[in-house]
User: Which sequence fits this backbone?
């Protein structure tokens, strides 16, 4: 078993402290450092390379997804373990698509499970069971067969992308330099064209689309 060099990333000092106290002194585990944000994490890894990053996420938004993506870009061989209280298959799919390798729920977290997962990630062995992954890959195909879908406009695609990132209407309006009423109009048009009722269904379709694109590239 190789050495697991672990970087702990959380904006909550007490969480970082708790994880450090839990892992320090464990055989085969060395704490490479701590960071309170993404930029500090990347800077720390340049000085003290880590092969496992523990990222504590309390809410899923564009910042959380960006953190996973940026860490993955800066250290492609580093494995990312997300610890979260958010128990939702959509969240699992989003963090995996962003580049995370495993997630553990706080409600089911034990020291034994955490340490075992770290050992597995550090060894390079896969630890995401395929049966745990939501089966969304057929959603786009199912919708195409069931409905005659009207293509989205470029602007509607931009709005859908921002919805997928977790942004609210006011944030989308600011990002696209349009008024919030126009955002609502675009969203209503998206829902009508895709035959969906809300944000959660829009995210599921976007996830399925991304998965299909990934499969085509592989």
Assistant:
């Amino acid at each position: 078993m190789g050495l697991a060099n672990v970087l702990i990333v959380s904006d909550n000092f007490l969480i970082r402290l708790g994880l450090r106290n839990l892992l320090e002194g464990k055989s085969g585990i060395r704490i490479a450092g701590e960071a309170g944000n993404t930029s500090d994490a990347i800077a720390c890894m340049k000085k003290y390379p880590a092969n496992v990053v523990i990222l504590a996420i309390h809410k899923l938004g564009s910042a959380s997804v960006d953190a996973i993506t940026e860490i993955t870009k800066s250290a492609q061989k580093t494995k990312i373990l997300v610890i979260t209280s958010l128990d939702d298959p959509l969240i699992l799919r989003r963090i995996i698509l962003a580049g995370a390798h495993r997630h553990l729920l706080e409600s089911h977290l034990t020291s034994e499970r955490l340490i075992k997962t770290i050992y597995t990630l550090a060894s390079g062995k896969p630890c995401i069971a395929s049966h745990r992954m939501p089966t969304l890959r057929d959603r786009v195909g199912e919708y195409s067969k069931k409905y005659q879908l009207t293509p989205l406009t470029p602007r509607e695609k931009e709005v859908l992308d921002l919805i997928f990132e977790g942004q609210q209407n006011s944030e989308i309006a600011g990002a696209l330099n349009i008024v919030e009423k126009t955002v609502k109009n675009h969203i209503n048009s998206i829902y009508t064209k895709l035959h969906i009722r809300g944000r959660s269904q829009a995210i599921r379709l976007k996830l399925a689309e991304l998965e299909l694109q990934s499969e085509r590239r592989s």
Observations:
- The first strand starts at residue 4 and ends at 9.
- The beta strands are 4-9, 29-35, 52-57, 79-84, 102-105.
- Residues 105 and 131 are 17 Å apart (CA to CA).
